[in-house]
Amino acid sequence: MSEVRELRITPIRNGTVIDHIGNGLALDVLRIIGARGLDKDSTVSVALHVRSGKLGWKDIVKVENMELSPRKVNAIALIAPTATISIIRDYKVQSKRPVDLPETIVGVVTCPNPNCISNQGEPIESEFRVSRRRPVQLTCIYCERTLDDFLRHLV
Ligand SMILES: [Zn+2]
C-alpha cells in the first residue's frame, strides 16, 4: 500500500498532469496522448481508481517532458470532461485548468456520415460545432450529422 501511495505522489520535473479523469477513462486518455507523441526519455505514470472527494473515484495520468497540443486537450475534453490539466515546469505547477470545449472542434473526431464531404479524401478537415454541452453532442458543420460517441471517431 505504501508503495502505491509513493508512486502516486512522485513529482515530475517537467510535463503534464491530467487529473480528475473519470474513473476508468485513463486508458482512453492515454490513447489520445499517443505513444508517438512522447519524448524518448518520457515517463508516463497512470493511477487508476484513486479516491477523489469530488468524483468518488478518479484516474490520473502524468506525462514527463510533454505538453499537450490544443487538439489533444479538446479530445480529452470530449472523452473526460471532468479532467483538469496542469503544466509542470521545474517541479512547480505553472498552470492548472479544467478542460474546456471551444465552440468548434476541428480535426479531432471524424464525421459518422460516410457520405460527408469531410470523409471523401478531400483536403477538408472535420469540423463540428458543440450543439449541446451536458452531455456533449457535436454537429458536423458540413452535413449536420450529430455525434456523441467520440471514442470510436477519434482522428
Ligand atoms: Zn459530416
How is this structure best described in words?
The protein has 155 residues and is α+β, with helices and mostly antiparallel strands. Helices cover 17% and strands 36% of the residues. Helix 2 runs antiparallel to helix 3 (70-79). A five-stranded antiparallel sheet has the order 2-3-1-4-5, with helices on one face. It has a four-stranded antiparallel sheet with strand order 6-7-8-9, covered by helices on one side. It has two domains: 2-98, Aspartate carbamoyltransferase regulatory subunit, N-terminal domain (Alpha-Beta Plaits); 104-153, Aspartate carbamoyltransferase regulatory subunit, C-terminal domain (SH3 type barrels, Roll), CATH 2.30.30.20. It has helices spanning 2-9, 26-33, 70-79, and strands spanning 15-22, 44-52, 56-64, 84-89, 92-98, 104-106, 127-133, 136-140, 146-147. Zinc ion is lined by residues 111, 113, 116, 118, 140, 142-143, 145.
Nutshell version of this structure?
By secondary structure, the protein is of the alpha+beta class.
Number of strands: 9
Which bin fits the share of residues in helices? 10-25%
CATH fold group of the largest domain: Alpha-Beta Plaits
Number of helices: 3
The Cα radius of gyration reads 17 Å
